[in-house]
Every structure is written in C-alpha cells, then in structure tokens.
Amino acid sequence: MNEEYTSTTTLTEQTVENERDARTEERQNTFSYDGYQVVRKELFAHLRDPAIVIRKDSITFNTACITGLEDVVYVHVMFNNDLKRIVVRGCDENDKDALRWCIAKPDKRKSRKMSCKPFAELVYKEMDWDSECRYKVLGYRITFEGETLYVFDLLVPEIFHERQKRKEETVAEQPADQETKPVDTRKGFYPDDIAGTFGVPVEEHLRESEVRQMDGYVSMGVLTGRTVPDTGLD
What we know:
This protein has helices spanning 2-30, 63-68, 117-127, 168-173, 192-195, 202-209, 220-224, and strands spanning 37-39, 51-55, 58-61, 74-80, 85-91, 99-100, 102-104, 109-111, 113-115, 133-144, 147-153, 158-161, 199-201, 217-219. It is α+β, with helices and mostly antiparallel strands. Strands 2, 3, 4, 5, 6, 9, 10, 11, 12 and 14 form a 10-stranded antiparallel sheet that branches. The longest helix has 29 residues, at 2-30. It is elongated and about 75 Å long.
C-alpha cells in the first residue's frame, strides 16, 4: 500500500516538474522585451536612496548622497537644459566653481543646506515649478570615464508643499463658513504623467540611463553668472 502511494506521489511530482520545465522553456523561447516597461524607482519606498531637495532658495543633498561619494567634500554641480538633469561630481577645494556640499568633521560628514537663490530660481523657471513647493529628486550613481557621478533627472520629481506662514489678515478675510483642509507638507506626490504610469519602455530606459558625454552641461557658477567662463586666453 505504501509502495503504491509512494510510486503515485513520485509520478505526480515528476509530471508537475515536467510541465513546469515545459512552460519555462516555452517562455524562454518566446521572450521579448517588447511591450515591457521598467517600473520607476520613484514608485517604491526610497528613504535611504541618494536624493537632492531643491527649494526656491537652496539645495540640499541627503546623507545617502554624501556617503555615496566617500571623502568628497567639494563638488561641481552641472545642469543640462536639454535633458533637464543635474550632474554632480567630486572635485578639489581649489578647483574653479568648487562647491562645499557637506559638513566635514574628523569622524563623520553630514549634509548641509546650500543657499543658492539665483541658481534655484533659474531651475524653477526652467522646469516651470511652483515656487510654493519643494522638489525631491532621486540620484543615480554612475561611472563615466572612470569617474563616479550622480545624475538627477528633474523630469521625475517628488513634490512637497512648503509650510506656509499664517498671516492674521488672511485669516480675518476668510469667510467663517469656509473650511480649509491643512496641507500635509510631509506627504509627497508626483506629476500626473508620472503617477499614472509604471515607467518607460525598456529601450527608452536604456537610452535614458546612459550619459555618453558631458557636452551640454554647464557648471552652477557659469549658469548663475557667478564666474566668467574660461576662454583659454591670457
């Protein structure tokens, strides 16, 4: 009795395994990336991912960002008008347009608020952003020509309402029967064209993931007019 049961069980398991192998082979032989979209990283929890927060008068790189470029205290910040991206790379303190992006102590480094109203205003204008909001953009750590960079795609921002200061005159003018729901400044949201989609097609994702050359990027100093571009002439 037991031998018959064992034999039947073994046969059933073998049949299931054969069917699974057949399905696997069929999917392998017919697989294609056509029609697939790479789901945006932004649609998942990303509290520990590198990111930049842009306000109308400042930018701040989070701790994960600072940690990702070990021992880097000064950086070049570059902006690309066509791609709508910000690129950050490490540099030496005395390099032209070098910017200190963190507070460096003997035992640790931490992020710092970088005041840059002229630069932030240009970015807000370029992106047509709401001045009453702050924008958080995830950073992608890549290697380009042997150098580690962060790439921030400004077309995919998480948006947060900034906390508004209460004005007595505004409250007084508000009708008594009008109720307003407080805005949650800690809860972010995405533009409709991003929130309503999974991501982009695989081929487009591959193209967007590549930084083939640095042409088109300009430093923050040049962009804001803080320094005069080097012409190469003495």
